[in-house]
Design goal:
β10, α13 and β11 form a beta-alpha-beta unit. The strands form 2 sheets. Strands 1, 2, 3, 4, 5, 6 and 12 form a 7-stranded mixed sheet that branches. The protein has a 5-stranded mixed sheet with strand order 9-8-7-10-11, with helices on both faces. The protein is of the alpha/beta class. It folds into 2 domains: about 190 residues, ATPase, nucleotide binding domain (Nucleotidyltransferase, domain 5, 2-Layer Sandwich), CATH 3.30.420.40; about 170 residues, Nucleotidyltransferase, domain 5, CATH 3.30.420.40. It contains 15 helices and 12 strands. The structure holds adenosine-5'-diphosphate (ADP) and magnesium ion (MG).
């Protein structure tokens, strides 16, 4: 009985809502054994109205503090509903869960201002109140306070799951923004944000087709890459900056995209060009920084875009390019799984930033705790 109780102490829930603004990924994880297991998952898509409200908070507008606080409450209710569904489906009670790791929804990410800041919405006090479960959130601020980028922070989880003592691997997470983690045998883990993953493709697709994303890259496949536009896009200074670096919608948004267009392009050709931009920036990031990599594993929603995956496979000819599914971790759930694990690190008071990636001046315990 005591054994069973201690097992339950290792149940954690991770909640991820990333920069794609597609919705909420929830993962129930068990960390009672040396190899973490993902027990159950749940996805709650955002409706267009919620997505629009979140988008409008990415820049300064009327009464934004009030609107951000109210939207934080809305998100907490959505997160709590998702947790309740997950518990119900698994016949678990809130007291069975050690903690929820809730990333929150990023609306501003400005680490580059020196002592900058990052803001993830989602009222964690309310989430703890509604679920009766301890909530860990605000995972990025401490790293930024220590001089880091506050991102990417999942690479330490990639390292734990995927580092191989003999094979040089790179993990590519293709969310709204894409980021790479370099796992070289016997070497310090490195990595950085490479640029846009899905967010520009999603926004352009929504505007011109009414669909929130280009399923499997089918629409992009009908277009022709416009070399002059691709060149204008890729000359953005961010791409040539050395790591550490992280980014978000501050840089990669529709205004920037429009500034690189003449307005006479066929929408389908722009979509093909945006798909190529994601491929090119990932490929360059890897070939310039980690040319000897043998195996590349993709995760995040972009790993489900067949055109994107085959474009990467062609560009990396001679190297293995697969999704993390091949390594036994479903590419769709890796980030939510990671936030479950990161919350456990916080509860156990173990640092989880990698200074070699974020540039912080030291290891830090990440996150703020709202006790049950
Ligand atoms: N079948 C698919 N075809 C093309 N794109 C897809 C597919 N499935 C997911 N995506 C893309 O993945 C995005 C969600 O990825 P996700 O990893 O959740 O990103 P984030 O962490 O930024 O929320 C969607 O917005 C969409 O662009
Ligand atoms: Mg998402």
């Amino acid at each position: 009985m005591e054994f069973r109780k201690s097992l339950k102490q290792a149940y954690y829930i991770g909640i991820m809502s990333g920069s794609s603004l597609d919705g909420i990924d929830v993962a129930l994880a068990d960390f009672s054994s040396s190899s973490p297991s993902l027990l159950h998952t749940l996805y709650l898509p955002y409706d267009q109205s919620l997505r629009d409200q979140l988008l409008s908070l990415h820049h300064s507008e009327n009464d934004e503090l009030h609107r951000a606080a109210m939207l934080g409450n809305t998100l907490a209710r959505c997160y709590a509903q998702a947790v309740s569904n997950l518990l119900h489906k698994n016949k678990l009670k809130s007291t069975d869960i050690s903690a929820i790791g809730c990333h929150g929804q990023t609306i501003r990410h400005c680490p580059q201002l020196g002592m900058g800041y990052t803001i993830q919405l989602g009222n964690s006090a309310l989430l703890a109140e509604l679920t009766g479960i301890t909530v860990v959130s605000d995972f990025r601020s401490r790293d930024i306070a220590a001089g880091g980028q506050g991102a990417p922070i999942v690479p330490i989880f990639h390292q734990m799951l995927f580092q191989n003592p003999k094979v040089h691997r790179v993990i590519v997470n293709i969310g709204g923004i894409s980021n790479v983690t370099n796992l070289m045998p016997g070497k310090e883990v490195t990595g950085f944000d490479c640029g846009p993953g899905n967010l520009l493709m999603d926004a352009w697709c929504l505007r011109h087709t009414g669909q929130s994303y280009d399923e499997n890259g089918k629409w992009a496949k009908l277009g022709t890459i416009i070399p002059s536009v691709l060149e204008r896009l890729t000359t953005l200074q961010f791409f040539s900056l050395p790591p550490p670096k992280s980014t978000g919608r501050e840089l990669f948004n529709m205004l920037w995209l429009e500034s690189c267009l003449s307005g006479n392009e066929r929408p389908v050709d722009v979509q093909a060009t945006l798909l190529q931009l994601t491929i090119t920036t990932i490929v360059k990031s890897i070939l310039i920084n980690f040319p000897d990599v043998m195996e590349i594993y993709l995760c995040g929603g972009g790993a489900r875009n067949g055109e994107l995956v085959s474009g990467l496979q062609v560009a990396f000819l001679g190297k293995k390019v697969e999704t993390t599914d091949t390594l036994g971790i479903n590419a769709d759930w890796l980030e939510a799984f990671a936030f479950a694990w990161l919350s456990r690190q916080t509860i156990l008071k173990i640092p989880s930033n990698l200074c070699s990636i974020t540039g912080a001046k030291g290891e830090r315990i990440l996150g703020a705790i709202y006790h049950a």
